[in-house]
Every structure is written in structure tokens, then in C-alpha cells.
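pinned: reference chain
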Amino acid sequence: MTLKIDKKIVGYTVVTEEQSTPLSAPGNPHSLAPIHQLGEPLSRPEKLVGNTYKIKTPVTDHALYITINDIVMNAGTPQEHRRPFEIFINSKNMEHFQWIVALTRVMSAVFRKGGDITFLVEELHSVFDPKGGYFKKGGKYIPSLVAEIGEVLKEHLMEIGMLSRPEHDPKQKVFLEEKRQEFVKRHASGQPQETGFPEGASLCAKCSTQAVIKMDGCLTCLNCGDSKCS
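pinned: its C-alpha cells
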């Protein structure tokens, strides 16, 4: 709160902490709302429960295994619930090792501090790869590997109840079912994809076409010919 001094200052005294009146005290005319101090970070118990998620992306040669461990809060009471406590990411691919370790340590620190952690999903989703993103199974576009980690965190938070799963309205459900049946029929009849490239091809970072397949043990784009082995 800002106080305007409209009189000339003629002197001053130093007030000790014991003599001062807190701003939140009832008798103080400039009383403020009570100040709530943040608690200390949660200490790690000996046993945690969690899930491990496997993700395979076209930007890494090996799969990533994401483990999110949860701490059980208010165990044995009606308010019992789980909340993330720590996250680990393991892979045979060492290319992204440094920033993945840094990211998981920062995320684990945020988990342990308490409070609302759902904002991390949006923050991770907003990270874009300058080389371009890729499409995952189902045709969903992922802008970066970091955003994929955000997808895993979102799925985990929905599973433990910290986020609610989006519900489709009846019209959307009918539309999605029609498209699913349409895809099943086309796939069963062996009809090629409209793009002309094999099903399951990944996105090419050079020409942004979903036409990269593994040929002779090397990822090769059937559209522009770009290859990791060339």
C-alpha cells in the first residue's frame, strides 16, 4: 500500500521488529490481508507410486521412457489423492541428454514445491522445434519433443485426477465414429493413402512431407530424397 506524506519530515526513529505493529494486525489502520507463507518443499518418502510411459518419435532413433512418480497425500482419509513428485526420462539416445536432465530436475523441483502444477502442461506445449514438428499416431501434430513430454504429463495428470478429460458432445462422437469406420474400411481394403506414401511414414524435416521411411536401415524421405546416412 502506498502512503502519501503531506507533512514535512522533522525527525525519525528506528523501530525494532519487536516494537513494530504488523500490517495485518487488527488494530493497524492500514491492515492488509493475512500473509500466507509457502511451505517447505515436500521431503521424499521411502516408497513412491508411479507410471512409466514409452514414446517413440521420428526425431529420435530410440524410444524415450518417461517415469512420473507420485506422492500420496492425506493417506487413509477422504481427501486422499496423488500428486506428481518427480520425473525421470531414460533413453539409449544420448543426443538430448543434457537438456533432458536439466528439464526433469526443474520439473521435479516444481512438483515438490506444491501448489498448482498444471501450468507446466501449457508451458511445454508451447515449445516449438525450429526444424519442424511431427505427427504422432492418430494424426495429431506435435510441435517438438518437449511438447511430446508435455503430452505425457497431461495424460498422467488426467489419470490421477488433477486434470479432467475433455468430453465430446453427441454430434462430435457421431462424426468421429463415422471417420473411424471410414478409416477401418479403407485400411481393410488395402486402398493406398491419399498422399501416395506408405502408411506410417513420418514427417521429413527438410521438405515437411510425411514421407520418411526406414530404407536399408536408414531413414529416407521418399519425397525429396533426404537421408540421415547421406
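why pinned: The CA atoms of residues 11 and 110 lie 47 Å apart. The mean pLDDT is 79.
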